[in-house]
Amino acid sequence: MNSLGHIYVVEDDESMRSSLARMLKTYGYTADIYASPEEFLEKSVPVSPAAILLDMRMPSMSGVDLQKRLVDMGRITPIIFISGESMSHEIVTGMKQGAVDFLFKPFNLDEMLLALTNAVAKDRENFKKIGQSLSLRQRYESLTPRETEVCALLVDGLMNKDIAVELGTTNATIKVHKARVMEKMQADSLQDLVRYMIALNE
After folding, report:
1. Which residues contact 93 (CB under 8 A, 6 or more apart)?
2. pTM
3. Which of 154, 152, 142 is nearest to 185 (CA)?
């Protein structure tokens, strides 16, 4: 059976760790458990789709401190905080840093499974966007310097004959460059090309 996703459990309470790991595997997830933020930073290997179940309060480092470390490292795996008490400033900080949910102990199973479903779906979507962005960047970087110029002028709305004047060449030559730009960028229309260039610059 295919896994629904991979869950990292970072929790200093041993019985809670074990209980969560068993529960996750029962419901179709793979799971790795870590007794401390330091162990997670040292041993975890990034995979996708995944989510992190992160205890807010641990002796050596708080959940939001670990979250900040991960953000600084460029790891964008969605985080669900689990906490025994609600501290509004921690919740605000966690949300600002990109947490997708908070579960307050004792939380029920349905609540946890819903949060995990949403977090893993978010990670899957993030991974897909990164893949598309890389592919788009690679396509753009395959353009020659002249094709890059033609691409920019097309997106600016210039007609072939205007581009020819701008670049000091012939209309026929611009037609060839335009065809190569559209082919390399995998754009079926000028609207597609404009959308792709907007996406590249976001």
Report:
1. 64
2. 0.69
3. 142
Given this model, what pLDDT does residue 41 score? 94
Domain ranges of the chain: 6-130, 142-200
Q: Are 12 and 36 in contact (CB under 8 A)?
A: yes
For 99-115, what is each residue's pLDDT tens digit? Answer: 889 888 888 899 999 99
CA dihedral 102, 106, 111, 115 (to 10 degrees): 30
pLDDT tens digits for range 156-169: 999 999 999 999 99
- Residue 201 corresponds to which amino acid? N
Is residue 1's pLDDT more than 60?
Answer: no
Q: How far apart are CA 93 and CA 166, in angstroms?
A: 51
Tell me whether residue 155 is exposed, middle or buried, using C-beta atoms within 10 angstroms of its C-beta: 0 to 12, 13 to 18, 19 or more: middle
In the chain, the amino acid numbered 3 is S
CATH 3.10.310.30 fits 6-130, yes or no: no
Q: What CATH number labels 142-200?
A: 1.10.10.10
